């Protein structure tokens, strides 16, 4: 039979180990448990290990069942306890809360059983000791679990502590001893592994833990209920705890945890009421009826109920407490509540207990005596101490030395008494006569001495308390914030909040930067506007050094706005998109003066809102700031591709702005951007659009208004024209092909606009240079109507440098084929061939004097190499055919040339004259130029004489104009010209004298000065003519025949017969004739 | 049908007649493991006048009460619904049970009246805990009439549904009760006891 059963249990084990279904496994486990525990406990030792193997099972139900098994086991077979301890400990450390809880609950039974088993054992084995040690570890762990995060575990832990305390304390010496009550009395004094004294000490410690837990301010209601029940139970069963328990309950009642809800408070109060009513029945509680009664009255019990419940005197007589231990606990109980509670003066009054003056003072001192105050009191009174201890002080002091302990309560009591004796403190006022002074510092010298000693004690005590507090801090449990906080009134809350935020802001230097940033931004972003304002004002006070913080705040706001981050609950309802915008705008407006900061802000900000954009634009309009502000726009365009167009358009709009400074800045940046192929199209489009405006009747509205800084106008002013042109023209060097469109526009516009265009293109065209294929193309094409533009272009190009051959070629072609305006040629004159220049000269000199002057400047090499030398130029001028240009024009032109004295020096002129003279026929203006040359350079006279003589050989008189000039020249060059004159044939000499009467007398005198020998060289006819004795005679030779022809004219110089002159002119005198 | 939760529930009123039975009925239909009890000394059923109730000892079956009332005044007890109630009760279980005599263990004890709550707690204190598991005692007042009993049963069912959703009841009970209190709009008493 038993064998069969054993077989089936083995089968179950096997099944269970292979079973995967939790429920099934649990069933099997229950079967095994039932079988082993109840039916065949004798098989337990054999199979125990198999059962314990379930410790490592994954299923928490199985593990719970296993704990149950162990619990049952220890009831059946205590001897097996050592074997299960390890498993129990492992299970306690299980991660499942329910398993842990189950272990704690089971531990209550197991601990009780184990202790009893140890005590019954006749001799202790090593195994027992090991088990007990293990169990002690478990016990400590459970005791520590009173600070667990889990409510249920805490509750169970409290219950476990109750059990341990009950087991390890002495029972009341009364006859109504409960059955089944194990206590220290049952622990044999001979037991080595568990000493009574140690156990009791442990129990006392655990009780302290329990009381502290009970009094902790954030205890949950379930824990509190459990705790009250446990304390009540302890007090009931172990009367020694009565005082402490009553104290703890009283303290609790006065300081209900603020975290409890109304319902929970009601439940707790109800519990308190029933427990206190239960306690007051206990004979040991009689001493505390005074304390319990007011609470019960408060809780709604009638006085008669209380009286009824209070223990009867005969019961009390029967009841004798364990004096020693009870007394000490009473003492500590009296102390405890005062340490733990912040006993409030007003509360006390509310309770309705009339306080005596001494109590009032005690309370006052208790509230005010901080460690700092105590130290202060000590420090101030030490110097006043006498060298020896006074008799009366020793008496008082000894009392405490003997009792061994001085708590705060004692100090408080003494201080209060002294204050009262001096009628000080709130208590002092209660008794007439009232005293004004209040401060405890005002104490007589003698008192102070005593106070001092007490303070020393007090301080020690304080330290002790502090230590205890510290331990507690480590164990503090996690709390739900919403539970433990009580709403403060709004103002206080805000003030505190602001104050803390401010402190936090000030701590920047000491804080870890990233953390600090995160904290501050989170604060600013997720709290109320007040906090935000505080942070903001901190930031704005020194934006430069806080720029990182500002940016991180911007990002925080941005993520809220975009929904990357949750909208902070405190800001629900506000518009997060607005707050980002506002923030950004505030930052911008407060940093308008600081280019560096604003650039950083904007470049790094996740988004530039429209409003921010407006602000930037406003800055751009400021001439002083536009430089960097527009640069910022450029950077934004480049670095923020999603909004590239916005920034670019903003920047572009400033290229037409009214202020030249702003405009120039903008254009500079636009040109920068234009280098990028992806942007150049847009920029050109914009410029072209503006250019096209010029075709309109009046300026478009888009150029006026606040954005453009100018008023609306009905007609094209220079200003408007410039605005339209500048962007486009500025782009020319960057994209030369644009020039063709400019030409088209040029054709279509009116004179004013044309003028401006001509003026504006200078710079760009210059920078494009002569080699620009597009410009050459323009010159080549020269659309009809754009001649002036093209001319201007050519002019600009050749202003400072000689024209390139290509340009010259283009111009030449243009001139020859399509536009015969000679003006085209002027700029490229230097590039033309000599022949071309000479052929163009007649036309050129017809232009207005200024232009002519310019032409000469060019030709005379003031703009570099000239195709023609000055000599050639002057000669060419003289040779211009009268049909091509009238004499007057040529005269003007030559005079203009001759004014250039640096070019037409004496030597140059000499060459010119030389060349001119060689021309046939003689140039009309020859003598004019000779005279002028002579006027400029008198030293040329010798050379001129030479020329004159040669002219005679060339029968100068045949050309009337030249002849007149000749005579004039002779007249001017008296006396050098005498020689020349006298070489003239007689007829011509007569004519000359006739033409210029001034000549005759000087000539005569000159001749008269001649010596005979000299005269011999002079033809007689000439002498006669000069001397006025010449009679025209018929001359047989044809040559002399001419001479008499002029003879009649001689007398009438003033009016020579034109006919004779004509005749004379037709017959040139043979050269060298005498 | 498998229970929807292994939570052991007790609903307790004074006579185990109306409020606890209504809840018992409703909860078991929902699939809870539930038992019902009374804590009173006697079973009192309203009679022909306010001062003349019908009084029975615990131990009597519902059927016996039914027969008794039927004999006494069929019309009256049909009209006030007692016969109907008893008829329903006897389909659920045979006789009213007294909590103090039951000696069973529960995880959740729901009482319908503060006095009953006090009695439950008082009784539990006298019991020596055996396995020390934590049980929650929850009270909210349900007036003792048929309509309120029905509403009360709904509320109890809501509460139980909320409770079984919690994975760790001992830890979550405060929160659950807080939520429930808002919903039920009546004050709740809660305490814990050790089985």
TrEMBL record, chain A:
<dbReference type="InterPro" id="IPR022075">
    <property type="entry name" value="Symplekin_C"/>
</dbReference>
<dbReference type="Pfam" id="PF11935">
    <property type="entry name" value="SYMPK_PTA1_N"/>
</dbReference>
<dbReference type="InterPro" id="IPR016024">
    <property type="entry name" value="ARM-type_fold"/>
</dbReference>
<keyword id="KW-0507">mRNA processing</keyword>
<feature type="region of interest" description="Disordered">
    <location>
        <begin position="422"/>
        <end position="456"/>
    </location>
</feature>
<feature type="compositionally biased region" description="Polar residues">
    <location>
        <begin position="322"/>
        <end position="332"/>
    </location>
</feature>
<protein>
    <recommendedName>
        <fullName>Symplekin</fullName>
    </recommendedName>
</protein>
<dbReference type="InterPro" id="IPR021850">
    <property type="entry name" value="Symplekin/Pta1"/>
</dbReference>
<feature type="compositionally biased region" description="Basic and acidic residues">
    <location>
        <begin position="434"/>
        <end position="450"/>
    </location>
</feature>
<dbReference type="GO" id="GO:0006397">
    <property type="term" value="P:mRNA processing"/>
</dbReference>
<dbReference type="GO" id="GO:0005847">
    <property type="term" value="C:mRNA cleavage and polyadenylation specificity factor complex"/>
</dbReference>
<dbReference type="InterPro" id="IPR032460">
    <property type="entry name" value="Symplekin/Pta1_N"/>
</dbReference>
<feature type="domain" description="Symplekin C-terminal">
    <location>
        <begin position="821"/>
        <end position="994"/>
    </location>
</feature>
<feature type="domain" description="Symplekin/Pta1 N-terminal">
    <location>
        <begin position="97"/>
        <end position="317"/>
    </location>
</feature>
<dbReference type="InterPro" id="IPR011989">
    <property type="entry name" value="ARM-like"/>
</dbReference>
<feature type="region of interest" description="Disordered">
    <location>
        <begin position="308"/>
        <end position="335"/>
    </location>
</feature>
<dbReference type="Pfam" id="PF12295">
    <property type="entry name" value="Symplekin_C"/>
</dbReference>
<keyword id="KW-0539">Nucleus</keyword>
Automatic annotation (TrEMBL), chain B:
<dbReference type="GO" id="GO:0031124">
    <property type="term" value="P:mRNA 3'-end processing"/>
</dbReference>
<keyword id="KW-0904">Protein phosphatase</keyword>
<keyword id="KW-0378">Hydrolase</keyword>
<keyword id="KW-0507">mRNA processing</keyword>
<dbReference type="GO" id="GO:0005634">
    <property type="term" value="C:nucleus"/>
</dbReference>
<comment type="function">
    <text>Protein phosphatase that catalyzes the dephosphorylation of the C-terminal domain of RNA polymerase II. Plays a role in RNA processing and termination.</text>
</comment>
<comment type="similarity">
    <text>Belongs to the SSU72 phosphatase family.</text>
</comment>
<dbReference type="GO" id="GO:0008420">
    <property type="term" value="F:RNA polymerase II CTD heptapeptide repeat phosphatase activity"/>
</dbReference>
<dbReference type="Pfam" id="PF04722">
    <property type="entry name" value="Ssu72"/>
</dbReference>
<protein>
    <recommendedName>
        <fullName>RNA polymerase II subunit A C-terminal domain phosphatase SSU72</fullName>
        <ecNumber>3.1.3.16</ecNumber>
    </recommendedName>
</protein>
<keyword id="KW-0539">Nucleus</keyword>
<dbReference type="InterPro" id="IPR006811">
    <property type="entry name" value="RNA_pol_II_suA"/>
</dbReference>
């Amino acid at each position: 039979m038993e064998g069969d059963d054993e077989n089936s249990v083995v089968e179950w084990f096997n099944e269970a180990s292979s079973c995967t279904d939790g429920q099934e496994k649990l069933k099997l486990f229950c079967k095994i448990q039932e079988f082993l525990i109840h039916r065949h406990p004798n098989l337990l030792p054999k199979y125990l290990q198999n059962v314990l193997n379930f410790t490592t099972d994954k299923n928490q139900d199985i593990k719970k069942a296993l704990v149950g098994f162990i619990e049952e086991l220890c009831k059946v077979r205590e001897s097996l306890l050592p074997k299960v301890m390890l498993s129990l400990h492992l299970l306690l450390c299980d991660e499942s809360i329910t398993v842990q809880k189950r272990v704690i609950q089971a531990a209550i039974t197991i601990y009780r059983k184990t202790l009893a088993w140890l005590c019954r054992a006749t001799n202790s084995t090593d195994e027992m000791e090991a088990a007990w040690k293990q169990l002690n570890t478990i016990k400590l762990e459970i005791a520590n679990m009173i600070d667990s995060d889990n409510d249920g575990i805490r509750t169970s832990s409290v219950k476990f502590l109750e059990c341990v305390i009950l087991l390890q304390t002495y029972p009341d010496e009364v006859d109504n001893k409960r059955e089944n009550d194990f206590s220290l009395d049952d622990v044999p004094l001979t037991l080595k592994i568990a000493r009574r004294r140690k156990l009791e000490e442990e129990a006392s410690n655990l009780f302290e833990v329990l009381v502290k837990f009970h009094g902790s301010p954030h205890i949950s209601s379930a824990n509190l209920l459990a705790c009250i029940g446990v304390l009540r139970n302890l007090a009931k069963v172990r009367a020694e705890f009565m005082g402490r328990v009553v104290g703890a309950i009283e303290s609790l009642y006065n300081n209900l945890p603020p975290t409890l809800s109304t319902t929970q408070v009601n439940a707790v109060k109800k519990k308190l009421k029933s427990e206190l009513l239960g306690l007051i029945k206990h004979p040991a509680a009689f001493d505390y009826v005074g304390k319990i009664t007011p609470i019960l009255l408060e809780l709604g019990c009638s006085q008669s109920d209380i009286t009824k419940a209070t223990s009867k005197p005969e019961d009390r007589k029967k009841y004798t407490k364990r004096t020693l231990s009870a007394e000490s606990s009473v003492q500590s109980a009296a102390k405890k509540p005062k340490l733990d509670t912040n006993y409030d003066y007003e509360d006390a009054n509310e309770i309705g207990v009339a306080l005596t003056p001494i109590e009032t003072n005690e309370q006052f001192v208790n509230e005010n005596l901080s460690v700092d105050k105590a130290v202060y009191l000590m420090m101030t009174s030490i110097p006043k101490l006498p060298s020896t201890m006074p008799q009366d002080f020793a008496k008082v002091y000894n009392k405490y030395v003997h009792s061994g302990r001085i708590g705060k309560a004692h100090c408080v009591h003494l201080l209060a008494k002294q204050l009262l004796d001096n009628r000080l403190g709130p208590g002092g006022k209660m008794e007439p006569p009232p005293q004004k002074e209040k401060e405890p510092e005002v104490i007589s010298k003698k008192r102070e001495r005593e106070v001092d000693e007490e303070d020393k004690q007090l301080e020690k005590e304080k330290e002790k308390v502090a230590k205890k507090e510290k331990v507690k801090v480590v164990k503090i449990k996690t709390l739900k914030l919403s539970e433990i906080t009580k709403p403060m009134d709004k103002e206080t809350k805000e003030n505190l909040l602001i104050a803390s935020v401010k402190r936090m802001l000030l701590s920047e230097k000491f804080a870890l930067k990233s953390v600090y940033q995160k904290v501050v931004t989170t604060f600013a972003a997720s709290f109320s506007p007040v906090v935000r304002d505080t942070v903001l004002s901190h930031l704005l006070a020194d934006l430069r050094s806080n720029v990182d913080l500002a940016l991180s705040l911007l990002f925080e706001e941005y993520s809220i706005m975009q929904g990357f981050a949750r909208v902070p609950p405190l800001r629900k309802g506000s518009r997060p998109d607005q707050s980002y915008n506002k923030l950004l705008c505030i930052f911008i407006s407060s940093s308008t003066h600081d280019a560096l900061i604003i650039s950083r802000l904007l470049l790094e900000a996740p988004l530039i809102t429209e409003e921010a954009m407006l602000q930037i634009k406003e800055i751009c309009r400021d001439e002083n700031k536009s430089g960097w502000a527009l640069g910022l726009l450029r950077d934004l365009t480049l670095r923020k591709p999603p909004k590239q167009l916005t920034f670019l358009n903003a920047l572009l709009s400033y290229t037409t702005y009214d202020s030249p400074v702003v405009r120039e800045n903008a254009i500079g940046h636009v040109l920068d951007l234009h280098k990028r192929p992806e942007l150049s199209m847009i920029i050109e489009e914009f410029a072209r659009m503006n250019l096209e405006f010029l075709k309109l009747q009046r300026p478009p509205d888009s150029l006026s208004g606040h954005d453009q800084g100018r008023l609306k106008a009905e007609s094209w002013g220079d200003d408007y024209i410039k605005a339209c042109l500048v962007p486009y023209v500025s782009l020319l060097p960057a994209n030369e092909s644009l020039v063709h469109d400019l030409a088209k526009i040029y054709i279509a516009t009116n004179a004013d606009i044309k003028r401006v265009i001509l003026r504006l293109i200078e710079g760009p065209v210059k920078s494009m240079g002569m080699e620009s294929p597009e410009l050459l193309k323009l010159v080549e094409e020269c659309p009809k109507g754009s001649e002036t533009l093209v001319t201007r272009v050519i002019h600009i190009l050749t202003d400072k440098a000689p024209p390139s051959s290509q340009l010259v070629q283009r111009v030449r072609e243009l001139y020859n084929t399509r536009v015969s305006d000679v003006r085209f040629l002027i700029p490229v004159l230097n590039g033309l061939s000599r022949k071309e220049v000479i052929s163009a000269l007649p036309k050129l000199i017809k232009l207005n004097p200024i232009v002519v002057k310019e032409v000469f400047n060019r030709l005379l090499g003031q703009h570099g190499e000239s195709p023609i030398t000055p000599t050639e130029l002057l000669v060419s001028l003289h040779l211009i055919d009268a049909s091509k240009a009238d004499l007057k024009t040529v005269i003007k032109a030559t005079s203009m040339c001759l004014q250039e004295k640096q070019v037409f020096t004496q030597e140059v002129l000499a060459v010119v004259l030389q060349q001119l003279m060689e021309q046939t026929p003689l140039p009309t203006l020859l003598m004019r130029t000779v005279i002028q040359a002579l006027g400029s350079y008198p030293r040329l006279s010798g050379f001129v004489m030479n020329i004159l003589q040669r002219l005679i050989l060339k029968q100068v008189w045949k050309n009337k104009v030249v002849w007149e000039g000749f005579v004039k020249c002779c007249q001017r060059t008296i006396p050098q010209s005498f020689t020349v004159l006298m070489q003239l044939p007689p007829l011509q000499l007569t004519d000359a004298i006739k033409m210029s009467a001034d000549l005759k007398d000087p000539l005569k005198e000159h001749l008269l000065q001649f010596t005979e020998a000299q005269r011999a060289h002079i033809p007689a006819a000439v002498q006669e003519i000069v001397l006025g004795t010449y009679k025209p005679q018929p001359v047989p030779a044809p040559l002399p025949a001419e001479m008499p022809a002029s003879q009649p004219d001689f007398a009438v110089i003033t009016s020579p017969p034109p006919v004779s002159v004509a005749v004379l002119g037709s017959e040139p005198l043979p050269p060298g004739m005498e | 049908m498998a229970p929807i939760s292994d939570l052991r529930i007790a609903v307790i009123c004074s006579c185990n007649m109306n409020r606890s039975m209504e809840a018992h009925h409703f909860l078991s239909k929902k699939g809870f493991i539930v038992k019902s009890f009374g804590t009173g000394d006697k079973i009192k059923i309203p009679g022909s006048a306010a001062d003349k109730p019908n009084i029975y000892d615990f131990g009597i079956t519902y059927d016996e009460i039914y027969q008794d009332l039927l004999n006494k005044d069929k019309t009256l007890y049909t009209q006030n619904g007692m016969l109907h109630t008893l008829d329903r009760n006897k389909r659920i279980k045979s006789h009213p049970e007294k909590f103090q005599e039951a000696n069973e263990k529960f995880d959740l004890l729901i009482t319908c009246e503060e006095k009953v709550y006090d009695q439950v707690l008082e009784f539990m204190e006298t019991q020596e805990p055996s396995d020390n598991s934590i049980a929650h005692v929850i009270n909210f007042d349900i007036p003792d009439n048929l309509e309120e009993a029905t509403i009360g049963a709904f509320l109890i069912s809501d509460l139980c549904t909320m409770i079984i959703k919690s994975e760790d009841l001992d830890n979550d009970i405060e929160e659950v009760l807080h939520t429930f209190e808002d919903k039920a709009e009546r004050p709740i008493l809660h305490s814990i006891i050790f089985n």
